[in-house]
């Protein structure tokens, strides 16, 4: 007999902590259409659904972004294959903000894409490299 796999649900406070924002910001997201459900009188969220929703909004905002660097970094996040690459892109985003080449708003959008990419990599699991002998 197969058991149905249930997805973990999070409260506003847990979502705020995982997304590095305030609980009030999560309430704003809910009003803007962030996926949430009522369970027993409480509002709950699914972490992956929130990350996907934030990433979709970030992609839309970054597609209209004037600085080419923001669009380029967004494309690089989309193509990441490892956690090391994500870490490097997070550092590059911070460096661009420090230089003044990238605004804080664009950096927040990129942070949402980084969260989605991290969840995508975690869901995929570790990859095994096959090493062959070349003669």
The biggest beta sheet, please?
A: 2 strands, antiparallel
Estimate what percentage of residues fall within beta strands: under 5%
* Backbone structural class: mainly alpha
Low-confidence stretches: 1-5, 128-135
Major beta sheet, strand line-up = 1-2
Shape: globular
Number of helices: 6
Distance between the termini: 50 Å
Count of domains: 1
Order of helices and strands: HHEEHHHH
Helical fraction:
55-70%
- SS elements, strand count: 2
Arithmetic mean of pLDDT:
81
Report the C-alpha radius of gyration, rounded. 18 Å
Structure explained in plain terms:
The chain is mainly α. The chain has one domain (12-124). It has 6 helices and 2 strands; from the N terminus they run H-H-E-E-H-H-H-H. The chain has helices spanning 12-19, 23-32, 47-63, 68-78, 83-99, 104-124, and strands at 37-39, 42-44. The protein has a two-stranded antiparallel ribbon with strand order 1-2. The longest helix is centred in the last third of the chain and has 21 residues, at 104-124. It is globular. Mean pLDDT is 81; it is low at 1-5 and 128-135.
Keywords:
about 140 residues, single chain, mainly alpha, 6 helices, globular, two-stranded antiparallel sheet, disordered N terminus
Please give the structural blueprint.
Layout: H1 12-19, H2 23-32, E1 37-39, E2 42-44, H3 47-63, H4 68-78, H5 83-99, H6 104-124
Antiparallel strand pairs: 1-2
Helix pairs in contact: 1-2, 3-6, 4-5, 4-6, 5-6
Briefly say what this structure is.
With 135 residues, this protein is mainly alpha-helical. It has six helices and two strands. It has one domain.
């Amino acid at each position: 007999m197969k058991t149905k796999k249930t997805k973990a649900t999070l409260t506003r406070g847990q979502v705020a902590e995982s997304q590095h924002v305030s609980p009030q910001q999560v309430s704003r997201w809910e009003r803007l259409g962030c996926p949430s459900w009522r369970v027993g009188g409480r509002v709950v969220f699914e972490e992956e659904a929130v990350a996907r929703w934030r990433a979709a909004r970030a992609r839309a905002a970054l597609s209209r972004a004037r600085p080419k660097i923001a669009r380029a970094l967004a494309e690089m996040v989309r193509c990441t294959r490892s956690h090391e690459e994500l870490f490097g892109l997070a550092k590059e985003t911070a460096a661009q903000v420090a230089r003044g080449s990238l605004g804080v708003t664009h950096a927040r959008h990129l942070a949402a894409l980084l969260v989605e990419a991290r969840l995508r990599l975690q869901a995929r699991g570790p990859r095994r490299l096959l090493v062959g002998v070349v003669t």
